[in-house]
Amino acid sequence: MEKNRIELCDMTEVHADLTKEVLETLPSEEELYDLSELFKVFGDSTRIRILYVLFEAEVCVCDMAAILGMTQSAISHQLRILKQNRLVRSRRDGKSVYYSLADDHVRTIIGQGREHILE
Length: 119
Hints:
This protein is mainly alpha-helical. It has six helices and three strands, in the order αααβααββα.
């Protein structure tokens, strides 16, 4: 037998009480869509690298580009996506704009994902 084979029931029997209970707890379609969109943002290794930099410090685009060896344009594009999804925030100080994590949820999501892959 193949180790990744999916096991199926030998007969069809719907457990009505269980299915009713589960259906009552499922989030709305809109919530499920929003959640899947959020996780798509985490599906890009460049954005993950940016978030890891922001775990350590609030930085401007110039510093981020130097740290990651990328162009400011490429960094700005990814920061725009992260900001639109409320994962990072910015503040202006004179001519510089500094970016930081929006909140601790970002660190938690990445941390739990990392724990999972390292198990």
